[in-house]
Amino acid sequence: MPTPLEGIRVLDFGVLYFAPIAGMMLADMGAEVIRVESVEGETMRWGGIPNVQQVGESQGASQVDHYRYMAVNRGKKCLSVDVRRPEGKEIIFKLLPQTDVILQNFRPGAMERLGLDYAAVSRVNPRIVYASLSGWGETGPLAHRYGGDQWTQAMAGVVALQGQADEHPYLSSVAFTDHGGAVMAAYGVVTALFARERTGVGQEVTGSLLDTSMFLQLVHIHEYLIEGKLPRKVGRCIAGNMPPYGAYRCKDGREVVTMFGMFDAQWPTFCQAMEVEHLVQDPRFASDTKRYENRSALYPLLDEAFAKKTAAEWQQIFRQYKMRADPCLDYQELVEHPQVAANEMIVQVKHPQRGTYRTLGIPIKLKKTPGRVQGPPPLLGQHTEEILGSLSYTSEEINRLEREGVVRTTRLRQEGAPGL
Fold first, then answer.
1. What integer pLDDT is reported at residue 55 of this predicted model?
2. Alpha carbons 259 and 272: distance in angstroms, whole number
3. Beta bridge partners of 131
4. Residues 6+ apart with CB under 8 A from 259
5. Contact criterion met (CB below 8 Å) for 228 and 208
6. In the 8-state DSSP scheme, what is residue 144?
7. Is 176 left (phi over 0), alpha (psi -120 to 50) or beta?
8. Which of 100, 106, 296, 312 makes a 20 to 30 Å CA pair with 138?
9. Of 120, 131, 102, 122, which is closest to residue 208 (Cα–Cα)?
10. What is the dihedral of CA 231, 235, 240, 245, to 10 degrees?
11. N- to C-terminal Cα distance for the chain?
């Protein structure tokens, strides 16, 4: 069965998460994604962070690929080439006529300095879809700055909403802006490819972590834009939701999350289920507004009640009352959950270094032309010989380029490399 993006070639110049995850998503849907990587390897391949920790070639060559790199680069090929060198850039330009998409998330101006910006590339291939991804945007006072998920969350108002009102704000443990930005980028690329089918011409697609972070707060920001209300930290609540909305620790140390929609109407039922019927008559908690105003007094009372039964017992009780108290799972419990198995969200892959390991499946399913995890992430330079050979480079030329540091190969015997 054909995959939806079969026949589409992508050159992925990405670093860290933003562009590489977008490239991985395109690979999952069948695109041939060639990861263009330096001869030293991307710093994250060895566990480092670009512009923070630099790892040399000799150190990187002795290490096993890091889980962060493996998580976001499955199903790709790797062309290891120094695009700063004239012969390295020449290789890219030879690939351009057969390329449909370019992904890059360097700071604005970096690709232009390399001579690989949209203007230069589109002169060779006007059908190219060129995704330029950045932290802050192409223009404006912050455009030149290095971007990153946590900085963006701070700038976009996310951090200011985390934590108790009178305490320091919290940082999110999940880099949701990087991940969400990749989804936006893949959406933009596929949309531009669809437009190209109609018009015959490509275009540049731009996106930023700042714009993504704002869009992921679509409803909450509109409370300010439309109502003029400025959301503030509300502690265990979430902006727009009233107590008893929240997470609670149970007798067995496990936690559950509970919430309900029609608050005032369901408050007596909730109190009955929790065996705290006396709270129904407590004037401090007589309405949504009162419960919110007095949440510092309400939460300790509910904590005490939840601590009297196990998480499983509360789930059963809440089901009987047609309400919800769902468990807070850790990653081990999550990946073993039968619903995750039913959704085919954990699949096995074989890697030349790591052996068989588990990776996430594809969250969007197409019933007639489904995507699939195409294989493991590539070793550094694993496909350099294959790609250069397709461009009619001879073995002698490839050997010379490698000796001169223009490219890097792995000498991996393709027929012996494990796959899915």
1. 38
2. 15
3. 103, 205
4. 241, 244, 245, 246, 324
5. no
6. T
7. alpha
8. 100
9. 131
10. 180
11. 17
Residue 179 — left, alpha, or beta (φ > 0 → left; ψ -120 to 50 → alpha)?
A: alpha
Q: What is the pLDDT of residues 74-99, one digit of tens each?
A: 999 999 999 999 999 999 999 999 99
Percent of the chain beyond pLDDT 70? 92
Kindly state the DSSP code that residue 236 receives in the 8-state scheme.
Answer: T
- Among residues 142, 171, 166, 134, the alpha carbon closest in space to that of 154 is found at 171
Distance CA 285, CA 20 (A): 49
Distances (CA, A) of 370 to 122, 313, 364: 31, 40, 9
Q: Is the pLDDT of residue 415 over 70?
A: no
Give the model's pLDDT for residue 50. Answer: 55
Q: Quickly count helices (H) and strands (E) in the chain.
A: 18, 12
From the list 265, 221, 268, 263, the residue with the least C-alpha distance to 242 is 263
The encoded tokens of residue 8 equal 């589409």
Non-local CB neighbours of 40 within 8 Å, separated by 6+ positions = 55, 56, 57, 60
Length of the chain: 420
Helix orientation angle between 263-274 and 295-306, rounded to the nearest 10 degrees: 40
Given a contact cutoff of 8 angstroms between Cβ atoms, the answer to whether 118 and 130 are in contact is: yes
Q: Per residue in 263-319, pLDDT tens? A: 678 899 999 999 999 999 999 999 988 988 898 899 999 999 999 999 999 999 999
pLDDT beyond 70 at 227? yes
In angstroms, the CA 239 to CA 206 distance is 31
